[in-house]
Write a structure and sequence with these properties.
- The chain is of the alpha+beta class.
- It has a domain at about 420-685: Rossmann fold (3-Layer(aba) Sandwich).
- It is about 20% helix and about 35% strand.
- The chain has 13 helices and 39 strands.
- The protein has an 8-stranded mixed beta sheet with strand order 32-33-35-34-36-37-38-39, with helices on both faces.
- About 45% of the residues are buried.
- The mean pLDDT is about 95.
Amino acid sequence: MKIPQLKKKPEIKTCHNFSWEDDYSWIHQDNILEVLKDSKKLNPDVRKYLEEENSYTDFHLSNTKNIQKELFNEIKGRIKLDDESLPFKDFDYEYWTRTTSKGNYSIKLRKKIGINEIEEIWNGDEEKRKLNVEYFGVGDLEVSFNDKYLGYSLDTKGSEYYTIYIRDIGTKKLVTEKIEETSGGITFSLDDKYIFYSKLDENHRPRKIYRHRLGASTKEDQLIFEEKSEAFTVSIGLSSDDKYFFITTSDHNTSEQYYFDVNEKEPQPKLIKKRKRGILYSVNSWDGKFYNHTNENAEDFKIDITESLEKQDWKKFIMAKEEVLIGGLTFLNNWIIRSETSDALDKLFVKNITTGMEEELLFSDENVYVPGVSLVQRDKDTDEIYLSYSSPKTQTRVYSYNLSSKKKKLVKEQEIPSGHNPEDYIVERVNCKSHDGRMVPLTITRHKNTKIDGSANLLLYGYGSYGSSMSPGFSTTRLSLINRDIIWVTAHIRGGMERGMKWWKEGKLLNKKNTFEDYIASAKYLIENKYTSKSKIIGMGGSAGGLLMGAVVNQTPELFLGIIMAVPFVDSLTTNLDHSLPLTVGEFDEFGNAKDIKDHFDYIYSYAPYNNIKKMDYPHIFITTSLSDNRVLFDEPTKFTAKLRAYKTDNNLLLLKTEMNAGHGGKSGRDGAIEEIALDYAFALKISEKI
């Protein structure tokens, strides 16, 4: 089949007295945010090219149709389709969700406490059918405090422009005007007369908080907070004791908070602490006290406490620890539960408020697992909580746990209908030395029959940005590769916070290349220790993890058999130079500001995947993107693919697949998500010659 070719229209770009040529910049339309909302506005030549690439991909993966179907059925077969969540007891009702074998979206149910009659208040599949849309993304689903109204927000394009609806649960009729172009979050006032929401600006940034009176025109909505900085975005939430609303405004590196009493008739948000660059803080209130989770004078966070926000007198409550990330707090009347993260592993601690004694909650003998905690009921006068854990080999188990008696009871275990035996798998946690001596944690999961003699293929997953840590939890999907003798390894590289804030700082801005070096060191370690061999590794990453994939494949293509890149951030210099795009300005403290700072420009240019494509052999590469993605615009992977076709000197596969009705998260719905995973895995099996 003829290889698609994107027309070259060379453009000379200049910044900081440096010039470079870009053959494909023409595909970026000036009205790109309008294109995300309405694909009919897409340049016809670009649409034609994307369709040609899709046909080319379909042609080269046509011999994987059977394995895609097999993988789809396998993955879906590990999901209990007819399932229900554990109930959450509100004051008057119990609420829970249900999934069905025929549906793709959840159903929200409730019953009045003491009465067995079950009421269905939301059915995602029915809502999708009523709207007659291909893409159906649910942003928020909230019930008012009087249990009378259901608030929900929908994105029907994938572009993350959410429309808010409020309806009467009893009559199922809308009680107010729909509110368009919001970030999706819905917060009810305690008297249920209002909702608070954030509106998106022309650059798709939520920088304004409005109060909307139910039943009134949106033209009457009251602006209660506006963030002036284009780098900051805002959100609103309720305190744990239901006494205050907190407005948080932040970028990735700095935050600032305001508060107002829930009973204020005319909300006047008051500043808690003025923002300081590099300082993150989050205040909550409970039992007449205020708790501040912050990294001020505590790199890996601490928690301070005060009895007043008007006369602040902060005292230490939870001390900082070196390279141990201190998490937030969950409150009950008699207990405070908190988390810590170190060496890419999470821990839970519980503090008895009366005695002041604190202890770790231990409930698994596995070395690598993910613990979790959630509340059983809204009323905090209880000793009962839900504790959960999963590991790379063990499905999620949830226990009802009594903090006072320490008795636990298994109340739900993730059911794998097709069968699963954790003892068939081996999980290892090792550390490998990076280029500068820092030790990088690796979580390795393999089938017990897979030989460690260099013969196995290996999928190396990485992300490494925004301080996002990769938790080593259970995945039903990965088993499809692991069962076929492909080892799965998650590299906990710098740029995340698996080893605290320092781990993040050492992987961003002018330290970003540490992220790539950590990943390359991980690959070399796995080769040296016979988990795999050179040219048998499949790299995988999405979004900022796609930036990682693009950088490492330009640097060390010989290590890889193939690369799978989902919605990859590969034209990172171009995006960083465009301050009108939704995420750019808010990410100056993550990636830098190439337009205004020459050192940042030089550094980003030196690793940006699109700018560093070379005339050399590349491994097999599979790239996916979505037309309505406003986080990583489709033109980034499109340009990257086109340039790579012109430069690479091999005959390996280079495939680009564009979802024409989806956003950053890919297709909507359960089946759609499984289809995308099955396609990625089919590509991995194809190049591994396992089909």
